[in-house]
C-alpha cells in the first residue's frame, strides 16, 4: 500500500513534535515508513520549513496545496472543522492534504490525530492493493 502523510501544525511548534506524531501515526495505521510516498500540507506552511524537513527526514517529497484546493476535499474528510474554515479557508489540513496528494481514489487509513500543536492523517493511494 502506498501512503501519504498529511500534516498541519501551529506556529512555533518544534520539529520534534512533527516527527513524534508522524511516527506514532505510522504505527497506529500499521504502515511501514517504506510505504510513504509524500508528506503533504497547506501552502501557507511551506515557508516555515518544518514540513519540508519532515519530508527530508523520511526521504520523500513534500507537497503543498492552497486552502482553496484543500477545501475541495471537504466531502471526504472525517473531521471537518468550521472553526478552521473561518480562520484559513478550508475545513481541514491534515486529512485534506493527505487525500489531495494521494489522489481521487484515495481513502483515509488514519483519521486526523492531534498532539502538541500538530495534526496528522494518512491516506492510501491504492487501498485495494496490499
TrEMBL record:
GO annotation terms (biological process): cobalamin biosynthetic process; methylation
Species assigned in the record: Dongia mobilis
An example molecular function term from Gene Ontology annotations: hydrolase activity
Pfam families per UniProt: CbiG_C (PF01890)
Domain CobE/GbiG C-terminal: 3-123
Name of this chain's protein: Cobalt-precorrin 5A hydrolase/precorrin-3B C17-methyltransferase/cobalt-precorrin 5A hydrolase/precorrin-3B C17-methyltransferase
Cross-referenced Gene3D superfamilies: CobE/GbiG C-terminal domain
Keywords annotated in UniProt: Hydrolase, Methyltransferase, Transferase
Amino acid at each position: 500500500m502506498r501512503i501519504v502523510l498529511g500534516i498541519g501544525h501551529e506556529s512555533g511548534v518544534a520539529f520534534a513534535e512533527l516527527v513524534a506524531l508522524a511516527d506514532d501515526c505510522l504505527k497506529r495505521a500499521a504502515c511501514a515508513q517504506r510505504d510513504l510516498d509524500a508528506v503533504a500540507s497547506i501552502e501557507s506552511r511551506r515557508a516555515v520549513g518544518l514540513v519540508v524537513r519532515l519530508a527530508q527526514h523520511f526521504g520523500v517529497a513534500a507537497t503543498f496545496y492552497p486552502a482553496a484546493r484543500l477545501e475541495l476535499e471537504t466531502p471526504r474528510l472525517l473531521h471537518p472543522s468550521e472553526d478552521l474554515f473561518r480562520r484559513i479557508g478550508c475545513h481541514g489540513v491534515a486529512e485534506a492534504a493527505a487525500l489531495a496528494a494521494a489522489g481521487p481514489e484515495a481513502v483515509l487509513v488514519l483519521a486526523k490525530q492531534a498532539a502538541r500543536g500538530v495534526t496528522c492523517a494518512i491516506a492510501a493511494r491504492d487501498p485495494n492493493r496490499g
